[in-house]
Design goal:
The protein is built from ten helices and 15 strands. The chain is globular, with a radius of gyration of 23 Å. It has 321 residues and is of the alpha+beta class.
């Protein structure tokens, strides 16, 4: 019977030294598709054999397929025979085709500023709501905000991928007493890079939590659609692949998660700065556009020691991490 130890031995023999994670579930090795980078960014699940490189994006369902294409037939044959039950080799790499979920706006979607909304009470109240949140007419037009009768009394914020195709939308209620504030398109948020069409990955990017925070930011920014960022997010993959410098401008109550995200990005050679918004507002969405831009300029450089100091500070104060 094949053991995990046997798999680890063969993987290290074929790929070079590897690091097993704390749970003993994955082993990280140097990716043969990326070339000799000296970094262990190819993750292999020791039980299933599924592989994913967090830099070049290579995916495969079988280790032997990666070995066959990028290392040698001999290494692939041995791994196949010992660990994969003799599954036949072929010339395919085993790469999984990523199928994007189809997203479409409500059929009756209309830009807020359009002839079709003239005289529409909901549209007028949506504009009032947006103005109260500090948005300008230019903001509303720039982010293509709209409404729809089928989702009444909500502002619809669409998102577009790098090719200009709709990949997500969220509909924010304009009424404060609604339990479900946001109604989202039914796609996995981890697969979405919000408004990637606006992003230049070669420049520093600002990361915020939600779309309304994003509207207040400089042009090169996107939102997490939540409060987490990990190796399973497409946004993380793009940042890591391009080594994009990052400013983390998360809400004031997200300091612990901000430190974790900063540490992760730094481990992938991304320069990280952190904006501490706590002295000025609860989140960046509470600022004006000009205030947000000026605050981001003052974001502080993050270093690994910062995470340790933050942890020690929380232990002393009795806070939970």
């Amino acid at each position: 019977m094949i053991t995990t130890t046997d798999k680890v031995r063969l993987i290290r023999s074929a790929f070079g030294s590897g690091t097993i994670d704390g749970r003993g579930v994955n082993i990280a090795v140097e990716c043969p598709s990326c070339g000799k980078t000296g970094k262990r960014k190819l993750s292999i699940h020791l039980e299933t054999g599924q592989c994913h490189c967090w830099v070049c994006g290579m995916r495969s369902k079988r280790v032997s397929s990666v070995l066959f294409k990028h290392v040698s037939r001999e290494a692939a044959e041995e791994y196949r025979r010992v660990c994969e039950g003799g599954v036949a080799l072929d010339d395919k790499t085993g790469e999984e085709e990523k199928v994007e979920d189809r997203v479409s706006l409500p059929e009756d979607f209309r830009p807020i500023f359009s002839r079709s909304t003239t005289g529409d009470t909901d549209a007028r109240q949506a504009v009032r709501y947006l103005m109260q949140r500090g948005l300008s007419t230019d903001d509303i037009v720039r982010f293509r905000l709209g409404t729809a009768s089928s989702v009444r009394r909500r502002v619809i914020i669409p998102s577009f991928n790098s090719e200009g195709a709709l990949n997500f939308y969220t509909a924010r209620s304009i009424d404060p007493d609604i339990n479900l504030r946001y109604a989202n398109a039914q796609v996995k948020k981890t697969d979405i890079i919000f408004n990637e069409i606006n992003i230049d990955w070669s420049r520093e990017i600002v990361l915020v939590e939600g779309p309304f925070d994003l509207i207040k930011c400089p042009d090169n920014a996107t939102c997490l659609l939540g409060s987490s960022l990990g190796t399973g997010h497409q946004l993380f993959h793009k940042i890591a692949a391009n080594r994009t410098p990052v400013v983390l401008a998360l809400d004031a109550d997200m300091r612990s998660k901000t430190q974790k995200i900063a540490e992760l990005l730094y481990s992938y050679d991304c320069n990280v700065r952190i904006l501490d918004i706590s002295s000025r507002a609860k989140d960046i969405g509470d600022l004006t556009h000009a205030e947000a831009v000026e605050s981001i300029k003052q974001a502080q450089q993050w270093r690994p020691m910062d995470r340790l100091l933050f942890t020690i500070s929380n232990i002393r104060s009795g806070s939970s991490l």
